[in-house]
């Protein structure tokens, strides 16, 4: 139940009508594709990033915006508005603690001129509003008319607004987006609102949001908002899968077209230099590439991240109109396969030496920020990291584009973090989880960097309903994408974990000498060894150590080592690495440090202005651990490359 949506008593009728009429359109959302907006000969983009008008609904019910229908007029006519940057989380932008910790509806608004060539009724164009990610539940209006609703942060949604912009071309177009960050037992991630009714302790109507995850629940318009055009008949989706045999690459493609029943489709695959290497016609087919350049991970090959370009060209006739659309998708030709003890990329053993990340930084929160993105990739390359997990939600498409180009391998995780309460394993949660996986696969299916889907992080997978739940989510994900392995990240007991039978790779988190036996560095090796042996004996599946490490406050020293000091971090790494080095010769296929950088969390007695397990500070300065890992990762990279050369 959302704050501002608590049933009849508090929920405004206006909001209810909008919600249920939009429910229908949101059910249809997954019928179409979700191609990343791109300019081409037939498509234009207008970015709406910058300063938007903003108002948080501080009313007790958080529902005044709906009762007073703020979307029907300029937001500034509803009351005081402030400037809010987009993309960014709203939490850390002002000095107002009420806004930092705000729960409920916030309202964004931008007025924008839409070019005449888009709005002319005979333009032959569609105009689409696209939101890269808004956390969590969002409703969008154009000139006061509702156009879409979307549940869930971290994944894009869009609405065809052609009719609305064409019906009023002489006025700027007013885009209003309301976003509610309330989490419930059935959202992903789950959360709950707790009302504090004891008025001797709390002000009237006081409530808090409880969550079971360890990062700040940043909210707002986190990724770019834009308008883009397509012709009226257009390329709606493209699915590409790849393979190779000897030196011949194979690209299978399927194109879906909307707006015409008799389109004609041609495709041309070009290499990096722009020379066409294969062509085909028809909405589905296979391309063969002689002397293929495979897509290789960073440091596994001297030419990693090789991308071909698949240009899809559609022509269609509808009545007397002729439409033409172009869309180009990058294609990395590679295969992924898992054996009982190996993770194979292009049939060669791949060892994940990488990190877990967060989308998180000062001021911006989870807002997309290019300097930060490029800095992070520089740090990953400096570190010799060949991979990361998108802990604990899907990252921006802009980030995955970089991974594709640089050869950084990705475990693509959905926002299934903190699924702890047994009530989050019922049908309502499961249905939503299946939709989220479908949205994720639909968005990222063509990315060579994505080699595995992760459907959850540290759920209560020992609970009885976890069996059916994870069987369903994993089976569904595999049917959506039969080409990639599926996992979830566990911290449960190997014997009682109900989801592990369904995964392809065991991903396990452990914090020996930290959360378990804190301060006892001497237990790490024995406990880690036992952990690996237990899981492997039971499942005979490759294992990734998907999280490990310790909080470090740079500048704190102690010898003999004590928790939080620079000396302690070194020993934790040494002890873990000694076991990894033994087990990677058998069935351990990766190690991902927790975490790449310090990050913000909710306030608690165990977090000193956030989680300090970064190998870099939140401002991206290295701690001692970063240098130790750097030595190790470059050595591991050399070994992986040597092994690959020997491997048939
Ligand atoms: C974990 C979680 C991660 C936390 C981390 C920690 O097991 O997966 O989200 O941030 O531990 O530092 O406690």
TrEMBL record:
Catalytic activity of the protein: a beta-D-glucuronoside + H2O = D-glucuronate + an alcohol
Intracellular or extracellular location(s): Lysosome
EC number: 3.2.1.31
Organism domain of life: Eukaryota
Residue ranges of domain Glycoside hydrolase family 2 catalytic in the record: 336-637
Annotated signal sequence range: 1-29
Glycosyl hydrolases family 2 sugar binding domain location: 45-231
Alphabetical UniProt keywords: Glycosidase, Hydrolase, Lysosome, Signal
Main location: other
Domain named Glycoside hydrolase family 2 immunoglobulin-like beta-sandwich: residues: 233-334
Activity regulation as described: Inhibited by L-aspartic acid.
Pfam families in the record: Glyco_hydro_2 (PF00703), Glyco_hydro_2_C (PF02836), Glyco_hydro_2_N (PF02837)
KW Hydrolase (keyword) present: yes
NCBIfam families documented for this protein: PRK10150.1 (NF007538)
Main function: Plays an important role in the degradation of dermatan and keratan sulfates.
Family to which this protein belongs: Belongs to the glycosyl hydrolase 2 family.
Subunit annotation: Homotetramer.
The protein, known as: Beta-glucuronidase
Lineage: Eukaryota, Metazoa, Chordata, Craniata, Vertebrata
């Amino acid at each position: 139940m959302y704050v501002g949506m608590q049933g009849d008593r508090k929920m405004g009728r206006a909001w209810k009508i909008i919600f249920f009429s939009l429910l229908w359109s949101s059910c249809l959302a997954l019928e179409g594709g979700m191609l990343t907006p791109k300019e081409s000969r037939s498509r234009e983009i207008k970015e709406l990033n910058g300063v938007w008008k903003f108002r948080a609904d501080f009313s007790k019910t958080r529902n005044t915006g709906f009762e007073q229908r703020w979307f029907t007029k300029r937001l500034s006519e509803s009351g005081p508005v402030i400037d809010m940057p987009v993309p960014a989380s709203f939490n850390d932008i002002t000095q107002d603690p009420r806004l930092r910790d705000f729960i409920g509806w916030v309202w964004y608004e931008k007025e924008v001129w839409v070019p005449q060539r888009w709005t002319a009724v005979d333009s032959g164009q569609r105009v689409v509003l696209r939101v890269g990610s808004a956390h969590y539940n969002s409703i969008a209006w154009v000139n006061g008319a509702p156009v879409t609703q979307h549940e869930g942060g971290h994944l894009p949604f869009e609405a065809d607004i052609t009719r609305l912009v064409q019906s009023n071309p002489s006025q700027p177009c007013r885009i209003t987006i309301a976003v509610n960050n309330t989490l419930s037992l059935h959202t992903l991630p789950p959360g709950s609102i707790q009302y504090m009714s004891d008025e001797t302790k709390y002000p009237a109507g006081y409530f808090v949001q409880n969550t079971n995850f360890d990062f700040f629940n940043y909210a707002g318009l986190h990724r770019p908002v834009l308008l883009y055009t397509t012709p009226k008949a257009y390329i709606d989706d493209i699915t590409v899968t790849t393979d190779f045999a000897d030196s011949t690459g194979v690209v299978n493609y399927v194109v879906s077209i909307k707006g015409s029943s008799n389109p004609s489709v041609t495709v041309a695959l070009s290499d990096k230099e722009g020379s066409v290497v294969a062509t085909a016609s028809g909405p589905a087919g296979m391309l063969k590439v002689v002397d293929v350049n495979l897509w290789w991970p960073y440091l596994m090959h001297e030419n990693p991240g090789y991308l071909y370009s698949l240009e899809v060209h559609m022509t269609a006739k509808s009545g007397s109109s002729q439409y033409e659309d172009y869309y180009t998708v990058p294609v990395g030709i590679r295969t992924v396969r898992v054996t009982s003890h190996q993770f194979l990329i292009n049939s060669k053993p791949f060892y994940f030496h990488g990190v877990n990340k967060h989308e998180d930084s000062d001021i911006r929160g989870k807002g997309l920020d290019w300097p930060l993105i490029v800095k992070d990739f520089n740090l990953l390359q400096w570190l010799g990291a060949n991979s990361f997990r998108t802990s604990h939600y899907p990252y921006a498409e802009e980030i995955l584009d970089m991974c594709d180009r640089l050869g950084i391998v990705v475990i693509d995780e959905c926002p299934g973090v903190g699924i702890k309460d047994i009530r989050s394993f019922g049908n309502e949660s499961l249905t939503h989880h299946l939709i989220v996986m479908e949205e994720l696969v639909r968005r990222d299916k063509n990315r060579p960097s994505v080699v595995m889907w992760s459907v959850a992080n540290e759920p209560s997978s020992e609970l009885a309903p976890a069996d059916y739940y994870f069987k369903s989510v994993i089976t569904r994900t595999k049917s959506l994408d039969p080409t990639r392995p599926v996992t979830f990240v566990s911290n449960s007991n190997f014997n009682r974990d109900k989801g592990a039978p369904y995964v392809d790779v065991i991903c396990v988190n452990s914090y020996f000498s930290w959360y378990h036996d804190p301060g006892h560095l001497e237990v790490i090796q024995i406990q880690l060894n036992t952990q690996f042996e237990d899981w492997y004996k039971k499942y005979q599946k490759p294992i990734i150590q998907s999280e490990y490490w310790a909080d470090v406050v740079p500048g704190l020293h102690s010898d003999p080592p004590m928790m939080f000091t620079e000396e302690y971090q070194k020993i934790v790494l040494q002890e873990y690495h000694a076991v990894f080095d033994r087990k990677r010769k058998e069935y351990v296929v990766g190690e991902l440090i927790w975490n790449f950088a310090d990050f913000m969390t909710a306030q608690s007695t165990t977090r000193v202005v956030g989680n300090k397990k970064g190998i870099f500070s939140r401002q991206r300065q290295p701690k001692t651990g970063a240098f130790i890992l750097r030595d190790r990762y470059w050595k591991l990279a050399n070994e992986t490359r040597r092994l690959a050369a020997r491997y048939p």
